[in-house]
Amino acid sequence: MSRIVINNATLPGSDKKTSLYIDEGVLKGWDAPAGLVDAEVIDASGLVACPGLVDLRVHFCEPGFESKETLASGSIAAARGGFTTVVTMSDTHPPIDNAGMVEFVLRRAREAASIRVYTSACATKGMQGHELTEMAELKEAGVVFVSDNRRDIESSAVLRRVLEYARMVGLPYVAHCEDADLTGKGHMHEGYWSTVLGIPGMPRQAEEVRVERNIRLAEMTGAHIHIQHVSSAGAVDTIRRAKARGVRVTAETCPPYWSFTDEMVQTFDTNAKLNPPLREASDIAAVIAGLQDGTLDCIATGHAPHTPTEKEVEFAHAPFGCIGLDTALSAAITYLVQPGHLSFERVIELMSAAPARVMGLPAGTLEPGGPADLCLVDPEQPWTPTPADLGSRSRNSPFLGKALVGRVKYTLCGGRIVHYAA
Amino acid sequence: MSAAPHTEREIQWTRRHLLGIADLSREEIETVLDTAPQFAAVAKRKSGIKKVPLLTGRLAVNWFHEPSTRTRLSFELAAKRLSADTLAMTTSASSVVKGETLHDTLANIEAMQADIIILRHDCAGAPHILAASHTSHVINAGDGRHEHPTQALLDAFTIREHLRRKTGNPEASLDGIKVTLVGDIEHSRVARSNILCLNKLGAQVTLCGPATLMPARVEEMGARVCYDLREALRGADVVYSLRIQLERQQHGLFPSIREYIRLFRVDHDSLRHAPEDALIMHPGPINRDLELAADIADGPRSVILEQVSNGVAVRMAVMHLLVNYGGAV
Amino acid sequence: MRDDAADQTIVMQSEAMQVHLRRMAREIAKANPDIDSLVMLGILRRGFPIAERLSKLIEGMTGRAPEVGAIATTLYRDDISRSPASPKGYTHFDFEIDGRSVLLVDDVLAKGRTIRAAMDEVFDYGRPARIQLACLIDRGGRELPIRADFLGEKIPAGDNEWVRVRLRELDGEDMVLIERYAREEEEDAAEETA
């Protein structure tokens, strides 16, 4: 493996220029040894050397939905976005709910992915919300957490057992919080815009009552619960209070929830159809406050690819979800750093060390002796993503056509350059 | 001989599609209303020749992705009275199951050189999606619960004509008049388009119906919400009754037909609280004696059949403006 | 309406207009001995007041006033999409035209397309025994085989000229003007005149 020397980079939160010397996939140190001749040299003037980003939740759709995304295409999207470590979700077809599936996915990832791919597994068999999966064996097979993905577990009794068992085997439970009865046939946030557009709404209370219930059951069982894609002000508040009384709860939000409001649905753009849905300005403010005070521990993308054929339909018929790997850091710089809500350094932390810490992954830091997983970021470069910029096999991004700031120029995973933007 | 009305108004119309009242300015709405009377006159010719050659040789496709008889007939008649050729096409949710997308279907229609697409669809925004990426003139004939712009335009036209007759003022407008919409607001595209249209024309809108059928924050669209029918009818110049779907009761949105009638039916009893000359309107079809008492629907204050006749004239005006002023296909 | 004419010349004053109208009324009355079978359709906007005046003049001569209606032609034009005009009132009359003699009345006869549109429209209202045409001015430039049966005056005008009739009822004065425009606008001017 080749040696790489990166010159003139700065580190997050510092103006001091430094070099990075990489050999055999490892960050050896901050200075190249004297007399080095056969190294590739990267001039990183104006770029910040950040740890490779970590995403706790991506849907790479393999096996079963390869027309949306594969482990290979998904990892290209991840690399373009500066990510070197991701955890795939288990709502594949068939779902990842047994050790055999876990082994299959991890093997395929080793063969096809250019970055580090971990996997999660279902909390209940077939995501049906009834029977527990074999979590002990799943843990041995290497899963990072259990989750029924985009489904909340309807039965409180089943959820209680999931949490008790997950705690016993030492796996976090990752919760999608939604009272599906209350969201009903809703397709967007219930509020002024759902009324104007005549689109059935999903009230924020559908998220909030389940955040409360799920946290209460975690509290009861002592399990580690991680709340996915927090979007509502009430949910942030509930998590904040739970943390204050010592519940083992962690939480994340995703770029659309600090970038856009439900007004975006006005054009019936199905890329704005998400679950939980885009909410209101007051929710954005609460989500940002949650990131500021640590109520929300980290940022995930929830990268959810859908093909153009699936998305270019009537709003009501389109599936929920958007991709996010390619644009997550830019969205954070544009909508969190530029307006002064968070420092660049803090954003990088929320997207690298923080998620790694939440799930105990050996990733997210840039230290001599550790793997050379890093990205070089121009935090000032303006760009407007077009479909051609996306590494994902799908195109369903609400950030297409938006004027963004900050671009990942290089991504290195294990010392290999896996992404370079001219 | 009575003097011919002279309205000297330069047509300021550049719009290619009619997707919703939300897009229209007050001036555009008034242009439609001012264009309609000549078409209403065409229908009343003594010769019985109710046709003008404004869209000769054009093809108007009535594409109904949701059952509708009245709106489809009204559009078809409007197109025929403008001398356009018409095709009717009905699709259903099953074509989605077959994998044919909205875009595929329209591309097929356009391959037959259609000039006007009149789309009724059960999903909000379907005509908007099509208009954004196709060349023909798209008219929204009702999209889900979202909008039904031609209904709101024909309603405004009906109210305005009536005001002008009643006051003798040929310039009378809807400014300051009070309109009360009664019924299922939540599921009603007629209500949404009317709230927008009436607001733009300066009318004051009151909404009345069960709280379970009142959409969130609808006041912010410019309407007063009132759950007491008697209170809602006080001072109303127009009482607009909306159709109540019986399945709403089955879905638990109100307890019983009996209680609905007791609280929200427009009838002799409740109308005692409205001014005597308040107009009675309904978009049709009526559930007789459910949301509206039959004798009121058939009574002297009712302009429900005028709404139907005016619907043809207003739809002729819309097609004429879109095709002849909104840019060639 | 345009108000950017480079220059304008008055070609007919009020008195001359009265003289022309009286003569036309006489000719119409003479050609239509059965006044009750005669109906007049003034083409909106300025043909309509002229028709009303002719009807009054005929009444003064014969004691019988022909019925007068308004015809818009807007819905029958072959150039609707290029026309900047709006619905200047709409066709409005409440008498029968079947078997009667219809006299179309307009202020200026130019290309003849308006008259063609008016005749098409008349046929959708019934089957007249015949159609005649009365115009105050013939400015030339015909594109269709149409001529006036009763004419005030021939005032030939060029491509860049616009013959404008002003009437007491609509404009506060009776007068005919020729307005001249810069060359690049000639096409517009010619169209509007038609």
Essential attributes:
heterotrimer, B: 329 residues, alpha/beta, Rossmann fold, 2 domains, 5-stranded parallel sheet, 4-stranded parallel sheet, 9 strands, 13% strand, globular, disordered N terminus, C: 194 residues, 3-stranded antiparallel sheet, 8 strands, 29% helix, disordered C terminus
Q: How would you describe what is shown here?
A:
The complex is a heterotrimer of chains A (422), B (329) and C (194). Chain A is of the alpha/beta class and 422 residues long. Chain A has one domain: TIM Barrel. Chain A has helices spanning 71-80, 99-112, 135-141, 156-169, 180-183, 192-197, 204-221, 233-244, 256-259, 281-293, 308-311, 328-337, 344-351, 353-359; strands at residues 4-10, 17-23, 26-29, 40-43, 48-51, 53-58, 83-88, 116-119, 146-147, 173-175, 188-189, 201-202, 225-227, 249-253, 298-299, 374-383, 404-413, 416-420. In chain A, helix 12 runs antiparallel to helix 13. The radius of gyration of chain A is 21 Å and the shape is globular. Chain B contains 13 helices and 9 strands. Chain B is globular and about 55 Å long. By secondary structure, chain C is α/β, with parallel strands linked by helices. In chain C, the strands form 2 sheets. A 5-stranded parallel sheet of chain C has the order 3-2-4-5-6. In chain C, strands 1-8-7 form a 3-stranded antiparallel sheet. Mean pLDDT of chain C is 89; it is low at 189-194. The interface between B and C is medium-sized, with 27 and 32 residues.
Q: Largest interface, with Cβ-Cβ < 8 Å?
A: B-C, 27 and 32 residues
How far apart the termini of chain C lie comes to 13 Å
Helical coverage of chain B, percent range: 25-40%
**CATH architecture identity of the largest domain in chain B:** 3-Layer(aba) Sandwich
For the report, how would you describe the main beta sheet of chain B?
A: 5 strands, parallel
Compose a concise summary of this entry.
The complex is a heterotrimer of chains A (422), B (329) and C (194). Chain B is α/β, with parallel strands linked by helices and 329 residues long. Chain B is built from 13 helices and nine strands.
